[in-house]
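Translate sequence into structure tokens.
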Amino acid sequence: MIKENSILAIIAAAGIGQRFDDDLPKQYFKINGNSIIENAVKPFIDSKYISKIVIAISDEDEFIKDQSFYNCEKIKYVSGGSTRQESIFNALNSVKDNFEYVVTHDAARPNVCENDISRLCDDIVKSKSSCSYLYTPVYDSIREDDRTLDKSKFNLVQTPQICNFKDLKKSIQNCLDNNVDCPDESFAIEYSNLKLSKIKGVRSNIKVTEKADIEILNNFLTRSGVGFDLHKYEPGDGIILGGYKISCDYKTVAHSDGDVLLHSIADSILGAAGLGDIGMFFSDQDNKNKNLDSTIIIEYCLSELDKMGLEIYNIDTTIVCESPKINPHRGKILENLTDILKIPLSKIGLKATTSEKIGIIGNNEAISVQSIVNLKDMS
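Result follows.
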């Protein structure tokens, strides 16, 4: 078993991404408000196994200092080389040889998770190999010129990979001495005729190479937030749901206009964006929020998303009440929501149910709404 806080991690981040076709190196491209490299590095900062992280960067790198992790005590920076293997080798030489294992990763793979690191640690010990790497099977057909190949004989190799520190250092030196370019660390270990092992990864752990990969990542890297709100009833002339007033013999007890649906949605948006909850921005102790139109709360939420470069991917919400019956008004509520949230109808789920005569809602004394939102990068 590998001890906690005992492993070195190396992040290869010296590439300029020529195929990405942008003035900004691909590892600094923003996704969901964070750069690709910030997403790639975070699991290593959080991992209980990693004690030191070395990031190999270009000498001309102007963007690394802007990253949220830049001043992390766990991280040091070294000059990368003209090739990936040179960058990894420089990083290995920048630390003392007192690490038994080293995990390597690409800065352009932002969808790695901490559990992948733990699984690799377990596998290299269990297999007694010099390197354990992640792979995914090939599902598409493969052709070489006019010949179809047996795809079952091929795998796609991913990072992170874990290696015996000394074995990797010697193996890369061996490749450099023989002018052999190794695309990843498992290749270097194989070139030295040392033992390899592998564990299955996930297809979402893609490496960003071209601009089109960003849209693929956006399908994986959404932020989710949950919102809940409940208001009691009192005698009145109607309740407001999604900015639409439904006439009935009661109203919601609230400091604002009591739009429980928009409050729930707002909380889910703020939560997904990591901003807190409604009360932090629209306190019910502040008189200026008395009878506040809840669409103003949503406008504020959308404004904050815009600052973060985020947008709503979809929303699903459930209204729980005994009355009024929601279905006759569902179309009007949805119509309002599309205008308020500035997203198409196809992105909104609106459901209604009762609490089966149970509790305060079942006694028709209150109404509640639960919402979930997914946010994505605007790009």
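Note: The two ends are 43 Å apart (CA to CA).
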